[in-house]
């Protein structure tokens, strides 16, 4: 096959490209330029698309012996990822920009261009697998599994995707990179949001969304406990950085329970008030055969987060998941990813949806979960 290897400049995508070559594919490497102003990128290996990363990707392609190009995706990235990030926070939601980048850039814009140029597939360094049935499955390294952030892919996109690292633990990938002579073998993993140069998310949002004085209030009594200069600086479940005037009467910490952008109001309360066991999403993306009605499943609410047995109801409006055990601090805007609970296919992704609401409901008993 003709394969386009997306090379971020990290160890994972470099080894993935090398494995694609070793598998006999005709491979071309590409690095995505995502910033309109590259000089604003942070230095060092804290992000996933810095100037240094571009140079590292080119050097890796030279060692592997494949053609290498840089594609300018800055405008598309800004529109589909950065602007979405602003809009979600402005509406009191907490987005996952890496998930949005996979959905809109790496497996939409890039894949569309790749297919138009005659490539058969795009290979990435994600830790996930494709089963013989074509379904997306967890990577074998549970600490690195990235099926959650890939669950936004459509079946058609998944059919044109390759994940060469899904069957390998991360430490063995690094060892392989050293054996192949790749200079990125010991390069640290990226963790920060790549388009926030200094890692200051609050400051980044304030620069765009501005400042507006608002109140932080006790959810139970309505008492004003503090003030802030923009509700977009908070997320549901947040504990630190609240700047409250005095501690709770019982001495326990307070958490953000809700955000109301219309009146710039942030409500706080005890951890118990964060308990949810019913989660609703908008229209889902189905990676497996679409289902209707109730079915048993396992759901994940955060990347690398806990997995919850649940009863999921699918209808024309979206998904409703009733958890068999409560979760805490679930924020609208995050993704709910549904996995098959069957023992044989328990790591297969069925669907995903963006969370609209999360609240407490009576637990539902369901056999087989």
UniProtKB/TrEMBL annotation:
Query: Sorted alphabetically, which InterPro entries does this protein's record hold?
Result: MnmA-like (IPR004506), MnmA-like_C (IPR046885), MnmA-like_central (IPR046884), MnmA-like_central_sf (IPR023382), Rossmann-like_a/b/a_fold (IPR014729)
Write out the function statement from the record: Catalyzes the 2-thiolation of uridine at the wobble position (U34) of tRNA, leading to the formation of s(2)U34.
Main localisation: cytoplasm
Q: What is this protein called?
A: tRNA-specific 2-thiouridylase MnmA
Its GO CC terms?
cytoplasm
Please state every residue range assigned to the domain named tRNA-specific 2-thiouridylase MnmA-like C-terminal: 277-355
Active site, renumbered: 101, 194
Documented EC number(s) = 2.8.1.13
Entry's Gene Ontology BP terms: tRNA wobble position uridine thiolation
Asked whether the keyword Transcription is assigned, the reply is no
* Family label: Belongs to the MnmA/TRMU family.
Gene name on record?
Answer: mnmA
User: Per the record, where is site Interaction with tRNA?
Assistant: 126, 334
For this protein's source organism, the top of the classification is: Bacteria, Bacillati, Actinomycetota, Actinomycetes, Glycomycetales
SUPFAM superfamilies xref list: Adenine nucleotide alpha hydrolases-like
Which locations, inside or outside the cell, does it occupy?
Cytoplasm
**Which UniProt keywords are listed?**
ATP-binding, Cytoplasm, Disulfide bond, Nucleotide-binding, RNA-binding, Transferase, tRNA processing, tRNA-binding
Which residue numbers delimit the tRNA-specific 2-thiouridylase MnmA-like central domain?
A: 203-269
Which residues take part in binding ATP? 6-13, 32, 125
* Database matches in CDD domains: MnmA_TRMU-like
Any matching Pfam family: tRNA_Me_trans_C
Q: Where is this region: Interaction with tRNA?
A: 144-146
């Amino acid at each position: 096959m003709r394969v386009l290897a997306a090379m971020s400049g990290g160890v994972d995508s470099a080894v993935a490209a090398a494995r694609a070559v070793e598998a006999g594919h005709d491979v071309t490497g590409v690095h995505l330029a995502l910033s309109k102003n590259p000089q604003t990128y942070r230095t060092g290996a804290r992000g996933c698309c810095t100037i240094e990363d571009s140079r590292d990707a080119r050097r890796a392609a030279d060692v592997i012996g494949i053609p290498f190009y840089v594609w300018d995706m800055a405008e598309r990235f800004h529109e589909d990822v950065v602007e979405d990030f602003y809009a979600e926070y402005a509406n009191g939601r907490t987005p996952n920009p890496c998930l949005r980048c996979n959905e809109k850039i790496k497996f939409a814009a890039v894949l569309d261009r790749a297919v138009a140029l005659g490539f058969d597939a795009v290979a990435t360094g994600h830790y996930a697998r494709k089963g013989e049935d074509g379904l997306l499955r967890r990577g074998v390294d549970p600490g690195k599994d990235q099926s959650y952030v890939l669950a936004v892919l459509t079946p058609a996109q998944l059919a044109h995707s390759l994940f060469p690292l899904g069957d390998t633990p991360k430490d063995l990938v690094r060892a392989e990179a050293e054996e192949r002579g790749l200079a990125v073998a010991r390069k640290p993993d990226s963790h920060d949001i790549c388009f926030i140069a200094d890692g200051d998310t609050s400051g980044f949002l304030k620069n765009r969304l501005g400042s507006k004085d608002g109140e932080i209030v006790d959810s139970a009594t309505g008492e004003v406990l503090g003030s802030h200069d923009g509700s977009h600086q908070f997320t549901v479940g947040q504990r630190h950085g609240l700047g409250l005037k005095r501690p709770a009467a019982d001495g326990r910490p307070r958490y953000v329970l809700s955000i109301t952008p219309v009146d710039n109001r942030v409500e706080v309360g005890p951890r118990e008030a964060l308990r949810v066991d019913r989660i609703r999403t908008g229209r889902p993306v189905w990676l497996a055969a679409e289902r209707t009605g109730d079915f048993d499943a396992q759901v994940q609410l955060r990347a690398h987060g806990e997995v919850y047995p649940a009863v999921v109801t699918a209808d024309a409006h979206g998904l409703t998941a009733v958890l068999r055990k409560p979760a805490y601090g679930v924020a609208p805007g995050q993704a709910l990813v549904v996995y098959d609970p069957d023992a044989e296919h328990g790591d297969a992704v069925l669907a995903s949806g963006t969370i609209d609401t999360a609240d407490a409901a009576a637990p539902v008993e369901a056999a087989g979960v």
